[in-house]
Design a protein that fits this description.
By secondary structure, the chain is an all-alpha fold. Helix content is about 85%, strand content about 0%. Helix 7 packs parallel to helix 9, helix 14 (about 300-330) packs antiparallel against helix 15 (about 335-340) and helix 15 (about 335-340) packs across helix 17. The chain is globular.
Length: about 425
């Protein structure tokens, strides 16, 4: 079954790569692994979302999403920007990075644990023991949750997308089974958090060794991985931090039920974007090997053609969303209009390839400009739109921010 799916995906990718005028053999071989893995992960996410939406009260699910937003903010101390730096460094031939990078990231993550413990103390002082205990769990998870995935970025740098897709699918499958069983057994928010964090961390540690042993890595190490990692992290800190603030802003202005509706509306859109995300993932190590002159020859045409494809997919999704929600997410009929609006952002997703190219070429200044401008716009727009217009303001705010980001990316095409 998996081989048949992979063959069909490879054929589809070959047709797409011909349309986009890309390296057809590279996309078909590497992209088919990532696409099949991502489809499996999307299927897992689909069943998990159905379990959350149909088995949990909206208030509980909204509180769960709020806590994960808090976790996301504190997890920024684990230097998520190191992920792009690792891919870039490994693609350049400096492969002995795992132990040094994961150790450094875990140590940095202790700062996030301290912040979570302080936040827990604040909630306990306000007699909110539920969020207090939740923040204690966050404190325990922060140093490990993101860093354990470092091995997967080494796999990306080595272009071993087959191993990456397979091992990540194992992790997602185990995590999803544990979460769904927990939802069926209890509606406890604390136990749901434990079920979310623990399996992922354990699987990350268990799979890293077998995955890396298959690569025959050299012993070369370049300290610049930390230099670029710090810069990429500051860039990620801004954009990712603002993204996590979206959930916190919705929770505080509108409450947990509205956050649940907002989260369900975004879930299918995020899954579609993650499927498109395999193309930038494939492109990063490839573009790290090319000169700027080689990249500039046809990048604009490729992005415009990809935008036509995403536009057609968005149109199909907007038309089918009411039927899909009625069938699978009947409790969240209110989310339909919001998911249709936020889906418009997918049309502009191909422009993210410019950011990947800038990352591959180490264009730190351009990345700072892009992320600061887009993130500042997003924070201001979301604060104003959510406080004034509720969830409708939130989704239209996301569309506006996507347009601003695309404008900046369009400028960067001209200045490559």
């Amino acid at each position: 079954m998996i081989k048949a799916l992979k063959s069909k995906i490879r054929l589809l990718l070959l047709k797409l790569s011909f349309f986009l005028q890309t390296d057809m053999r590279y996309v078909a071989t590497q992209g088919s692994w990532l696409a099949s893995g991502q489809m499996l992960n999307n299927l897992i996410s689909f069943f998990t979302a159905i379990a959350f939406a149909n088995l949990l009260p909206k208030e509980t699910f909204g509180s769960y999403r709020y806590i994960l937003s808090i976790f996301g903010l504190f997890s920024l101390t684990t230097m998520p920007g190191m992920e792009s730096a690792v891919i870039r460094t490994v693609a350049e031939g400096f492969e002995n990075v795992y132990r040094k990078v994961i150790t450094r990231r875990i140590l940095w993550g202790l700062a996030g644990s301290l912040g979570a413990l302080i936040t827990a103390g604040y909630y306990f002082s306000k007699n909110n023991s539920l969020l207090g205990y939740a923040c204690i769990i966050i404190a325990a998870a922060v140093p490990f949750f993101e860093p354990v995935g470092t091995y997967s970025h080494i796999l990306t740098g080595k272009k071993r997308f087959d191993i990456r897709a397979r091992y990540y699918s194992y992790t997602r499958l185990v995590s999803a089974v544990v979460i769904i069983l927990t939802i069926l057994a209890t509606k406890s928010l604390i136990l749901l958090l434990v079920a979310y964090f623990v399996p992922y961390i354990i699987m990350g540690f268990l799979l890293a060794g077998p995955a890396l042993r298959r690569l025959n890595l050299n012993d070369k190490f370049d300290e610049s991985v930390f230099h670029y990692g710090k810069h990429f992290n500051l860039i990620s800190l801004i954009s990712m931090g603002v993204n996590y603030l979206d959930g916190i802003i919705v929770f505080h202005f509108l409450g947990p039920i509205q956050l649940a509706i907002f989260s369900i509306a975004q879930a299918p859109v995020n899954r579609i974007q993650s499927l498109f995300g395999i193309i930038p993932d494939i492109a990063l190590p490839k573009y790290a090997e090319k000169t700027v002159e080689q990249i500039k020859t046809d990048i604009f045409k490729k992005i415009l053609k990809a935008t036509i494809i995403t536009g057609l997919i968005v149109l199909i999704y907007i038309v089918s969303a009411p039927f899909l929600f009625k069938l699978f997410l009947p409790k969240y009929a209110d989310s339909v209009i919001f998911t249709q609006i936020v889906a418009l952002t997918i049309v502009l997703y191909p422009f993210i390839l410019i950011t990947r190219i800038r990352t591959a070429k180490g264009s730190v200044r351009a990345l700072y400009i892009y992320n600061i401008a887009e993130s500042a716009t997003q924070l201001i727009v979301m604060l104003v739109m959510i406080s004034q217009f509720g969830l409708l303001g939130a989704v239209w705010g996301k569309v506006f921010v996507a347009l601003v980001g695309t404008g900046i990316q369009f400028y960067f095409i001209k200045t490559l």
